[in-house]
Amino acid sequence: MKLFKGPGLVSLVFLLVALVSVSEVDSSKHPPGAKVRYMHFLNEHRDSNPSTGGRYCNDIMRKRGLTSPNCKEKNSFIHPNDTAIKDVCGDRGEPYGTLRLSCNLFQVTTCDLKGGPPCKYSQDNRPRHIAIACDQGYPVHYDEGNVVLNRPQPC
């Protein structure tokens, strides 16, 4: 029986430890059924560091890959952190049809296509309540068609 020795064994052990560590950390953050949809939601709808310049929508839509192969007509970015958005799926939101409506106003920027190519967008920065779909307690869809500026009653 031949055993691994020297740098080959060290490299193999390091690689195995790294793979196990990454998979454990990654799987502990998100339930398996919701993970892919939640990560897509975050990429498409969350930006915790918005710029205040007039080019924000043009820049963020390009950076997120929403301008190719075609210009996306509309997309909204929710600016609070992941936890605040996720809490809408729990005690900081209420049922709203098949969605959850946030108890609090969120700072949101909606980018609307003005023309292109190259894609050019206008932006609406009004604070609003967000309506989201949740899967296993994680946001997986933002309903941009439901712009709720004032709730009929607080949570």
Automatic annotation (TrEMBL):
Q: Which residues form the signal peptide?
A: 1-27
Where does it live in the cell?
Secreted
A single GO cellular-component term from the record reads: extracellular region
Q: Name one GO molecular function term.
A: nucleic acid binding
What's the protein name? Ribonuclease A-domain domain-containing protein
Q: Name one Pfam family in it.
A: RnaseA
Q: Which organism is it from?
A: Anolis carolinensis (Green anole)
Which gene produces this protein?
LOC103281527
Name the UniProt key words of this record, in alphabetical order. Disulfide bond, Secreted, Signal
